[in-house]
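User:
I study polymers; will you set down one protein's sequence and backbone structure tokens?

Assistant:
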Amino acid sequence: MNLDALFEDLETQFETALAKANQTQKFGLNRLSASIAGNRITLDRPVLGSNFVAGLISGKAIWRFQPHRTLGVAKLTFNQTPLADVQTQDDIALLSESLTGRFVRYSLSGDGQQIRRGRVLQVMNALILFESPNEVLAVAIERLAWLEVHADDN
């Protein structure tokens, strides 16, 4: 058996498989449903990140950021038509783009049901800086249980 011919054949098969994988159509998410702390939540047009999911709460004017670690099993519904390009973002980039200057409601992991409110000054590294009457509060993104932007607050 000729080793050069064998390697040529394997290389051809690999290139064919790689080309086929690149031609696979990508479908974006239309809806995500999950149970979080016993409550059912459905997000329309969700964005999936490496460690979060974010989207509009179905039927409400509320945008929600939810870390993966707080999700159990999620049911996904995909779009029927392929998307030209599916992009992913990290949590810091998404929150920096969408939160600055907005009033938000949020809860921290381990805080029970306490809901906090604040206006976001900026997202700096992995911290969200909130405006307070006398001081600036910094909250680590990794400590969030959830974060919401309500249309009627803004």
